[in-house]
Design goal:
This is T-complex protein 1 subunit gamma. The protein is of the alpha+beta class and 550 residues long. It is built from 19 helices and 22 strands.
C-alpha cells in the first residue's frame, strides 16, 4: 500500500536534487566561459570597471574573477577556486576554472541518466589519482642553479601574460628576486617567502627596461632633518628601533611646564646617549622622533628616519643584518647592522626614496618597477607576482612537465587506455573525465584562431599510443610542435595543484542537491514578526538569478 508513495517521494527528491545540480553546472560553466578566452599567449584581455570607478585591464584569471559580483552560490565557489590556486602556487588560475567547468559539463550527461553523484565522484577521484601518476611519469628533474633552464621555464609560464612581449625582462627580475630571498632549511628544502621579503615598488615614469632588482631595500621616506643630516653614507652602521624617541607627557602634568621641559630634555638626551654609544650612522624607528632627538642625532652626525612601516623595517633587518630593538637600553653590538654597502636618499619624480643597497648577503630585496602609466605598472606587477610564484615553485620542487596542452593530452590518453580495464558503472564517468582534460589544449587552439577540430584530431593521433608525451600546441601559431624543442614548460607543482583543485571542486559541487537560503526577507513597516522558514530554492529561482554581471 505505502510502497508506491515512497517510490514517488524518492523520485521527486531525486528530481529536485538533479535540478539543483543542473543549475550549479550551468553557473560554473558560465564562469568558465567568461575567462576561457584569456588562456594562452594569444589570449584576449578583459577591461574591468571596479566599484570605485577605476579601470583594470588584464588577462589574469584571478584578477578578473576577483572583480566579478555574481549572485549564484556555485559561481561564487568557482571564483574561490581561482583565489586558492593563486595563493597556493600563483599560476594556473585560468586553467583551473576551465578544467573544473569542463569536468562539470561532462558530468551533466550522467546526471540526466540518473547516475548517483557519489558514483561520478568516485570515478573522478580515481581518475585524479591516475592523472597524478601519469604526471609523475613524464615529469623531469632540473638543476635550479642552471639559469638558462630557469629562465626558459619562467618565460614560458608568463608568455601567456601581457608582459610576454617584453622578452626576458620580467623573468630575469623574478629569478633574481626569488634566488635572493631563498633560505635553505636543510635536507634539500628551500623556503622562499615572496609576500614578506620581496617588495615591489612601482614608480611611474621612465621606461620598463629601467626596472631592476635592488641588492637591498628602498622605501618612500626622507631623513628627518634634510639640511642637517647626511643623505649618502657608505658602509653605514644601522640601528633599527621599534620605540618612540620622544617624551610621552602624562595627562595631569600640563602645569609644571618648566620642570617638564627639563625632564623631557634629560630623558631624550639619555635615550640618544644610549644609541650613540654604538656609533651608528643611521637610526631608523617605526614610531615618532621628536625635534630634540633629531637635534642630538644630527649633532653627532647620525642620519635618522622615522615612522617606517613594520614590514619595511623587517626587510631592512633582513637585508642589512640588523636586529629590531624595542628599547634603546637593551641595545647590543650584535644588533647593529653592518651588512649594507650604501645608504642614499634619491629623488625620483616628485618624491624622495631612501635606498639601502649593495648589501653583502641580503635575505630581502625590492623590485623597482618603472613604466609609462599606473595601469601598465599594475599589470606588470601582477605578472611579476605570477613569475615569482613560478620561480618559487621550481626552487621548492624542481620538476617540470611539458606546457602547451601536451601534459593534459598525455594524461587524457593514459586515462582512456586505463578506462578499458575498469569494470562496472564507474567506467563511463572515468572515461568522461579523460575527455574533459582535453579542454585545455582545445581552448588554446580556439584562442589561436586555428581550425580546432583538425588540430585536436591531429594531436589525439600523436598521443594515441602514449609515445609522444611532449607534443602540444604552440600558443602563438597554433601549430603542433615538440615542447622540448620550443622550451615550453610548466612547473609540476602548478599542474598537480590545478588537477587536484579542479576535480575536488567539481566533486563538491556535484554532491550538492539543495540550495537553502538562510537570508531573512525584509519586512514591510508595521508588519508583525513572522517566524522565518529556510527557503528551498527551486530550479526556476536558481536559473533566474543573475549569473553574469551586466
Amino acid at each position: 500500500m505505502h510502497a508506491p508513495v515512497l517510490v514517488l517521494k524518492d523520485s521527486l527528491k531525486r528530481e529536485q536534487g538533479s535540478k539543483v545540480q543542473h543549475a550549479n553546472i550551468h553557473a560554473s560553466k558560465a564562469v568558465a566561459d567568461i575567462i576561457r578566452t584569456t588562456l594562452g599567449p594569444r589570449s584576449m584581455l578583459k577591461m574591468l570597471l571596479d566599484a570605485s570607478g577605476g579601470i583594470v585591464v588584464t588577462n589574469d584569471g584571478n584578477a578578473i574573477l576577483r572583480e566579478l559580483d555574481l549572485a549564484h552560490p556555485a559561481a561564487k565557489s568557482m571564483i574561490e577556486l581561482s583565489r586558492t590556486q593563486d595563493e597556493e602556487v600563483g599560476d594556473g588560475t585560468t586553467s583551473v576554472i576551465v578544467l573544473a567547468g569542463e569536468m562539470l559539463h561532462v558530468a551533466e550527461a550522467f546526471i540526466d541518466k540518473n547516475y548517483h553523484p557519489t558514483v561520478i565522484c568516485r570515478a573522478y577521484n580515481r581518475a585524479l589519482e591516475d592523472a597524478i601518476a601519469a604526471l609523475d611519469k613524464i615529469a623531469i628533474q632540473i638543476d635550479v642553479n642552471d639559469r638558462a633552464t630557469m629562465l626558459s621555464l619562467v618565460k614560458s609560464c608568463i608568455g601567456t601574460k601581457f608582459t610576454g612581449q617584453f622578452g626576458d625582462l620580467i623573468a630575469d627580475l623574478a629569478i633574481d628576486a626569488t634566488t635572493t630571498v631563498g633560505v635553505d632549511l636543510g635536507q634539500g628544502v628551500r623556503e622562499v617567502d615572496i609576500k614578506k621579503y620581496i617588495k615591489v615598488e612601482k614608480v611611474p615614469g621612465g621606461q620598463l627596461e629601467d626596472s631592476k632588482v635592488l641588492k637591498g631595500v628602498m622605501f618612500n621616506k626622507d631623513v628627518v632633518a634634510p639640511g642637517k643630516m647626511k643623505r649618502r653614507i657608505v658602509n653605514p652602521r644601522i640601528i633599527l628601533l621599534d620605540c618612540p624617541l620622544e617624551y610621552k607627557k602624562g595627562e595631569n602634568q600640563t602645569n609644571a611646564e618648566l620642570v617638564l621641559l627639563k625632564m623631557e630634555e634629560e630623558y631624550i638626551q639619555n635615550l640618544c646617549a644610549q644609541i650613540l654609544k654604538f656609533k651608528p650612522d643611521l637610526v631608523i624607528t617605526e614610531k615618532g622622533l621628536s625635534d630634540l632627538a633629531s637635534h642630538y642625532l644630527s649633532k653627532a652626525g647620525v642620519s635618522a628616519i622615522r615612522r617606517l612601516r613594520k614590514t619595511d623595517n623587517n626587510r631592512v633587518a633582513k637585508a642589512s643584518g640588523a636586529v629590531i630593538v624595542n628599547r634603546p637600553d637593551e641595545l647590543q653590538e650584535s644588533d647593529v647592522g653592518v651588512g649594507a654597502g650604501l645608504f642614499e636618499v634619491r629623488k625620483i619624480g616628485d618624491e624622495f626614496f631612501a635606498f639601502i643597497v649593495d648589501c653583502k648577503e641580503p635575505k630581502a630585496c625590492t623590485v623597482l618597477l618603472r613604466g609609462a602609466s599606473k595601469d601598465l605598472l599594475n599589470e606588470v606587477e601582477r605578472n611579476l607576482q605570477d613569475a615569482m610564484s613560478v620561480a618559487r615553485n621550481i626552487l621548492k620542487n624542481p620538476k617540470l612537465v611539458p606546457g602547451g596542452g601536451a601534459t593534459e593530452m598525455t594524461v587524457s590518453a593514459a586515462l582512456k587506455q586505463k578506462s578499458s580495464s575498469i569494470e562496472g558503472i564507474e567506467k563511463w564517468p572515468y572515461e568522461a573525465a579523460a575527455v574533459a582534460f582535453e579542454a585545455i589544449p582545445r581552448t588554446l587552439a580556439q584562442n589561436c584562431g586555428v581550425n580546432v577540430i583538425r588540430t585536436m584530431t591531429a594531436l589525439q593521433g600523436k598521443h594515441a599510443n602514449g609515445e609522444n608525451a611532449w607534443v602540444g600546441i604552440d600558443g602563438n601559431s597554433g601549430a603542433i610542435v615538440d615542447m622540448k624543442e620550443r622550451k615550453i614548460w610548466d612547473a609540476y607543482n602548478v599542474k598537480a595543484q590545478t588537477f587536484k583543485t579542479a576535480i575536488e571542486a567539481s566533486c563538491m559541487l556535484l554532491r550538492i542537491d539543495d540550495i537553502v537560503s538562510g537570508i531573512k526577507k525584509k519586512q514591510a513597516p508595521g508588519a508583525g514578526p513572522t517566524p522565518s522558514k529556510p527557503k528551498v530554492e527551486e530550479e526556476g529561482d536558481a536559473d533566474n538569478e543573475q549569473m553574469l554581471p551586466e
